[in-house]
Design goal:
The chain has two domains: 156 residues, GTP1/OBG domain (Spo0b-associated Gtp-binding Protein, Chain: A, Distorted Sandwich); 217 residues, 3-Layer(aba) Sandwich (Rossmann fold). It is built from seven helices and 14 strands. The strands form three sheets. The protein has a six-stranded mixed β-sheet with strand order 10-11-9-12-13-14, with helices on both faces. A five-stranded mixed β-sheet has the order 3-1-8-5-6, with no helix packed on it. It has a three-stranded mixed β-sheet with strand order 4-2-7, with no helix packed on it. 23% of the residues lie in helices and 21% in strands. The protein is rod-shaped, with a radius of gyration of 30 Å. The protein is of the alpha/beta class and 379 residues long. The C terminus is likely disordered. The longest helix has 25 residues.
Length: 379
């Protein structure tokens, strides 16, 4: 199935049915009074969030949705039947905007959440409602009200606890495939991942978290270069970034003929780290301040020299602190091999700890409890 994460549709509620103009005429009442019934209410347009959907594929071809109108009233004070509501199912994580104003009108973030987008028109009153002592035979009734209508833009933002970000071919797809049940396409060329992937990471004591693999970013992604710009919205909801750096060339670059080779290798990793952070900030400034865990991947190529690995970690910690403005976690940057699985258990627990700490923080904020500094939650 093709991954569709944006769609524009038109929705319209049903019109109310008109009231009836009728007079009672039977053998017992040849000159009976008004008995026109009311028109039925028009159907509503209701959006429903569902975890059973993963894309906006259903809106690729059908772009107009209209609820049935209410029926006419009739004699004998019979009201017309109301138009049936129509339900439009969307994936959990769908943001709904008014296309004309750009305003967010609803954020569908919970399974089963309902939102009435357009209310059906009220049915018109029949002439029986307008009888009075001075007007005993009204020959008019109300028309039904028109139903509401809107043009809406649907944007799907995946709901995940953590997102793996980084340059193309850094090993993001391999990482998510090793720590979760997700099975993305994996190949040795850039931009293998064309759509976001979600995976559930199972942890001890029946705990788990959801992690997303986002297509690789490159410099200029916020302007539309590469593929990542189309999917940056999917990381806005995540609590944590797993920033993956490619360490495949580090051993070769760092073990050159002089001391400058090591510094140059560190500079290269930091440069790529800063490029990704810059793109995040240009897309949405808030993303730069989101918690992250920095990870150097492809450990299998450099684990032959543990001293070099530790030296690199120390150097990178100092640089990351000055760039990010927050102290790294105890063993950050984590050094792993997504291919062989080395270092992954420790990384999984680090991700879980950070996610749980921010879940706790969110709960305390909801209760109005005064919180300590963010640094106390990260250490």
């Amino acid at each position: 199935m093709r991954f569709i994460d944006e769609a524009k549709i038109k929705v319209a509620a049903g019109h109310g049915g008109p009231g009836s103009v009728s007079f009672l005429r039977d053998a017992m009442s040849p000159r009976g009074g008004p008995d026109g019934g009311d028109g039925g209410k028009g159907g509503d347009v209701v959006f429903v969030a569902s975890t059973q959907l993963g894309t906006l594929q259903d809106f690729r071809f059908k772009r107009t949705y209209k609820a049935p109108s209410g029926m006419h009233g009739s004699g004998a004070n019979k009201s017309g039947s109301s138009g049936a509501d129509i339900e439009i199912r969307v994936p959990v994580g769908t943001t709904i905007r008014n296309t004309l104003t750009g305003e967010v009108v609803c954020d569908m973030i919970e399974d089963g959440q309902h939102w009435i987008a357009c209310k059906g028109g009220r049915g018109g009153k029949g002439n029986a409602h307008f009888t009075s002592s001075t007007h005993q035979a009204p020959r008019f009734a109300q028309p039904g009200e028109e139903g509401e209508n809107m043009e809406l833009t649907l944007e799907l933002k995946l709901l995940a606890d953590a997102a793996i970000i980084g340059f193309p071919n850094a090993g993001k797809s391999t990482l998510i495939s090793r720590i979760s049940a997700a099975r993305p396409k994996i190949a040795d060329y850039e931009f293998t991942t064309l759509t976001p992937n979600l995976g559930v990471v199972e942890m001890p004591e029946f705990k788990s978290f959801v992690i997303a693999d986002i297509p690789g970013l490159i410099e200029g992604a916020h302007r539309g270069l590469g593929l990542g710009h189309k999917f940056l919205r999917h990381i806005e909801r995540t609590r944590l970034f797993v920033h993956l750096l490619d360490g495949s060339r580090f051993l070769e670059d760092a073990t050159g003929p002089d001391e400058k080779s090591f510094d140059a290798a560190i500079d290269n990793l930091i440069e790529r780290y800063q490029i990704i952070r810059k793109e995040l900030g240009l897309f949405n400034e808030k993303l730069v301040h989101k918690p992250e865990i920095v990870v150097i991947n492809k450990l299998d190529l450099i684990e032959s020299d543990p001293a070099l690995v530790e030296r690199a970690r120390t150097a990178l910690r100092q640089r990351i602190t000055s760039i990010r403005g927050t102290h790294p976690l105890g063993k950050e940057p984590y050094v792993v091999s997504a291919a062989s699985g080395s270092g992954l258990p420790e990384l999984k627990f680090a991700i879980q700890e950070q996610i749980e700490s921010y879940r706790t923080k969110a709960e305390l904020e909801a209760m109005g409890t005064k919180l300590p500094d963010d640094e106390e939650f990260r250490t």
